[in-house]
Amino acid sequence: MNLQNTCTTNKQTTYDIVGKYNQDRINGFDEDFLQSFVKLLNLENAENVLDAMGGNGNLTHRMVDYCLRQNINLPGITLLEYSSVQTDLARSYIDVDGVNIINGDVLSMRDIQSGEKLPINCFDRVVIKSGTHEISAQKQHQLYTNLFQALKPSGMFINPGFLFDDIQERDEFREITRVKDSLIGAMDAVANRHFLMRQEFYQFLQDAGFKNVEGKISFEYLISSEVVDREYLSPRKLEGAIAKILDAQTQAIVLQQHGRILFDGNKSIMRLPGEITVALKS
Q1: Are 141 and 223 a contacting pair, CB within 8 Å?
Q2: Quick check: 117 and 109 in contact, CB under 8 A?
Q3: Looking at the predicted structure, is the pLDDT value of residue 4 above 70?
């Protein structure tokens, strides 16, 4: 069995493990932030949108709802998601003409079942909502090259995601996340999650061919240990899991010094740097 097939199998198992969860609640995204984000997509002037790494369809559902409330024509939306479990959840959640839900791989831009490749130079918008950190460092360039090719000339890539300026903050958060991932059995994520530094991310985009890379909105992820326990850990009855995560957080000295981890007894909140970045295909 070659390495690519091994990695793919492990990756699929990892995402299927997660099952049903509320991504926005875990990340601490409130309604005002999410509305501002969707408005930034300028869906009024888009014909085709790719929701890449679209998970259970929460963003696609929000785009559909936005267009209905604003009384604008719904663009064609393609939701691309690797996990078969998350894809099935999206299909049960969204049944709207003009929305195409594909169980596919953003690193090959293919439908896993049919092998059919997504078209190039097709989309006015490509969006990944808090997902780029799921891709290993070695495959980050491949990711952005694929997204660049999928866009039409003058198309726009919009990415709300973690973005660090302090490498020690990034490394400490990565270690905390590895503890959580190992507790739920997501060993591929333990090995491969890659949280991006700002300069690194911008360079990946520029190397892929994007122009006018710009941070549009800075924000903070607000990750509560209570919510993580409820969404990730409690359904799996992992006794003592939250205590292990809190222990890992106590070892994150720089994050504490910078006020990015706040403790309240046996609870915590992490305030982590994020940015909605926009990049154009000229």
Answers
A1: no
A2: yes
A3: no
